[in-house]
Structure formats: C-alpha cells, structure tokens
Amino acid sequence: MEDSREIGLAAWCEAQTGHPQAQLEVVSGDASFRRYFRASDGQRSLIAVDCPPDKEDMRPFLLVADAYQAVDIPVPMVLNVDLKQGYMLQTDFGHTVLLSKLQERNVRQYYQQALSILPRVMQVTETAEGALPPFDRALLDRELALFKDWLLMQHIDIDWTDEDDDIWQHFCELMVSNAFEQPQVGVHRDYHSRNLMVTPQGLGVIDFQDAVIGPMTYDAVSLLRDCYIEWSDELVTELAQQLRADLQATGQLASAVTAEQWQHWFDWMGLQRHTKAAGIFARLAHRDDKTGYLKDVPRTLGYLSNVSAKYPQLSDYHHWLTQRVIPAWERA
After folding, report:
1. Does the reported pTM lie above 0.85?
2. Which of 13, 23, 68, 211 satisfies CB 3.0 to 4.6 Å to 73 for a cystine?
3. End residue of a domain, out of 70, 91, 112
4. Distance from first CA to last CA of the chain, Å, rounded?
5. C-alpha 7: how far from its chain's center?
C-alpha cells in the first residue's frame, strides 16, 4: 500500500532542495507519531521529518531548537518547515546513536560529555513564546498513573486491592514530593543514549520537543540509569556526584546541598522516571502495537527494585514490588 504522507514528504523535499529524491531512506520512527527519513540536497545528507499535524504539533520542537541553539546546545539546524503539512528538513547528525557506541572502556568519557551539556539545558527555561511548561503535579500524576493503568491493569491484569492502592498512593506522594524539593530548571525530559548522536564534532542532542521546567536531577538520572542500557551503581554514583560538584562550582546548585541529599533526589527521581517508562512501554505495546518495547520493562523493574531496597521509607513499596508486581509481570 502506498504511503501518501511519505510520497508527499518526498515531493516537498524535492521542492525545497531542488534535488530529486528517488526514495527517502527510513531512519526511524520513535515512540510518538513522528517519522524520520534521510533525504539529500545533492551535496549532503539531510533529515526529513514527517509529523502529522492532526497528531502532533511541530512548534514546540522549533521553539526549543532555537532556545537551545542560543546557548550553544548542539541540536540539528532546521532548514525548512511546513507547519500546515507537518513536514520539516533539518541537518543530519549521522547514523551513530550513543547507545551503539557505549562500552565499559568508553562509557565514562561519553557520559562526561553528555553531562557537560546539562548545565546549558538547565539554563533554558523559556522560548520565544514564553516559559516552558512546568513539570507540575498534574504531569507527575499522569506519568505515574501510566504504570498502574497500562502495566498493572492492562498488561498484567492485576486484581487491584485496597492494600495495593494504599501502597501505590503513598509511593506516588513520595515521588511527587521529591520532585518538588529540588531546584526547578530546564529539563530535556528524554535525555538518554538513544537521543544523543555521536558526531565528529561531539555529541548532538535530539528529541527535545517535550522540554519543561522541572527537577534538577531528572535528565541526569535519565542518562545514567538509562532504560536501554545499565551500568554499575559505583559508576552511576560517581558521575551523578561529579555533576553535583560541577553545578555547585558554577553556582547553579547551592553549596549547602550535600552528597546525601543529591543522591536521594537523584535516586527517587529515577524511581519516578522508571515507573513512567515501564507504563509507557506497556502502552506502546497495547495501544500502538509496538510490542518490542516490552523487552525493556525488566530493566526498569530492576531499577525500581534495586533503588527502593536502599531506602527504609520505601520498604512497604519494595516488598509489594518484589513479591506482588514482579512475579505477576513474570507470569503475564
């Protein structure tokens, strides 16, 4: 069956570049409705984006791209855009996502590069149209609810009890409180090894259209406790604490914030992030028929188990997770 949007995008690319596009090369789709293709202007490779306007608004991407470029965050340059049709051409960072390059021998070097970009991300709290959206209570609640609604109820089909609800509600309250205890800064909101590109000039940042003003540790834990690859606690803690020291050195974080406080913020922010991610993976499988994401659920559940085990305040949640939720997941 012909793909009318892909045909339309190819014709639009030809009109913009003056170069015939024999066939667009599929780069990837992602967890949204956007699709990415490789095009050409006859001299260089470009990225053509199909973003159906009835499904997703392209303007946040354009606004955040401009704001990030203004503080020297390495993002693709937008060359042409048609908001009405939902088409865009941008520069091409190449084929190499960070995930494909990470190994024990180079992970510290690459993650230090990635972490060095975050202080600039934190500076971006507004675009040309005003303040970024807040990572507010409503958004936190929606993200946490994905775990219950999609993983527990839809995928596992758990028999939800009052005891489940008490433990779950208490856990959610702790997660929300932790998010608001932290300094609120610019947050990319999906900063991990599949959204960082390895280029000859260094790392490039993509997929930033959902940027918000939110908790300071969010992007760091998204990177260091990545849903797609896992590293030792020792390395993660070392790099997380190095970021704290760097932020304190530049005055972006108060010197009174101790290593223990920072680690608590970081760890619990990761619990919120991985709770959301597990729910999203289940939703992608059931709503969008992208079942490949289910293979990443065990890693997120592992993070939840390992981190919650370190905190006595989470002992009821940890017991519930390991004795009820994870066994139910394994049986599903």
Report:
1. yes
2. 68
3. 91
4. 35
5. 30
